[in-house]
Amino acid sequence: MGVSFDVMSYLLDFRRAAAEAGFLCEVLEEVSGYDIPAYTKISEGSPRVYLSSGMHGDEPAGVLAMRELLDCGCFDDRIEWRICPVVNPTGLALGTRENAQGVDLNRDYLRKTTKEVSAHVNWLEKQPVPEMFISLHEDWESTGFYLYEIQKRGCPSTAEAILNAAAKEIPTEPSLLIDDHKVREPGWIFHEPRADYPEQWPEAIYMAEMGTRVSYTLETPSSLSLEKRVACHRLAVRTAVEEFLLTRGEAKGCNDGV
Prior knowledge:
The chain is of the alpha/beta class. The protein has one domain: 3-Layer(aba) Sandwich (Aminopeptidase). It is built from seven helices and ten strands. The chain has helices spanning 7-20, 60-71, 89-94, 115-126, 159-166, 203-210, 226-251, and strands at 24-31, 34-41, 48-52, 80-84, 132-139, 146-151, 177-178, 181-182, 188-191, 214-221. The strands form two sheets. Strands 1-2-4-3-5-10-6-9 form an eight-stranded mixed sheet, with helices on both faces. The protein has a two-stranded antiparallel ribbon with strand order 7-8. Strand 7 (177-178) and strand 8 form a beta hairpin. Helix 2 (60-71) packs across helix 7. The longest helix is centred in the C-terminal third of the chain and has 26 residues, at 226-251. The chain is globular, with a radius of gyration of 17 Å. The relative contact order is 0.17. The model has no long low-confidence stretch (mean pLDDT 94).
């Protein structure tokens, strides 16, 4: 179990800062008195990027990094943004991976049995498909930073640039097998666009099924200081976005398939 989190204060503060940054807020659902918000910043003709955090309540670094990204100007008008900073508010309040009912939300994106995921999917289905998806997570077993990459097309990968940037804060995870997945290179899991368990879709698999070209799931080690984990997420997201913009022209001619 992780450290409890003042979810209500965070949600109010994020909403204020997001409004100042030009985002519109939509409440997807209310669970146990907590809103699940989604934020949109339209920039006509710009590429679309979607970010999420707070899927697991014992992984607060991504949630805090998302708030800091608002302040540092990452969410500028070069991109059309969609952001869900707290998907699992009850788990975040309790400091647990699962929600208050004991369900791992990141295994529910096929069956949609929970209020949180059902509302989240309903919202996602109304949005245009993003070109890139970034999700912020943490790992209680790793010692270094690593990422999952899922591609629907054989496009230029930005995994190496993200790993190099993240290493300025947290060393790359050295294991050759991470969470039962073999790495392509240290810290880089190149995952097929299908679920490990057919009935237990995580959000990243759902986004691939929607047609998202590429996704990066960023993982910081929970054993390190929260400050370092937040800084690493912030740096990794900024690098992912900048590299995405640089390689987007090359990606337009990519073939379907991995």
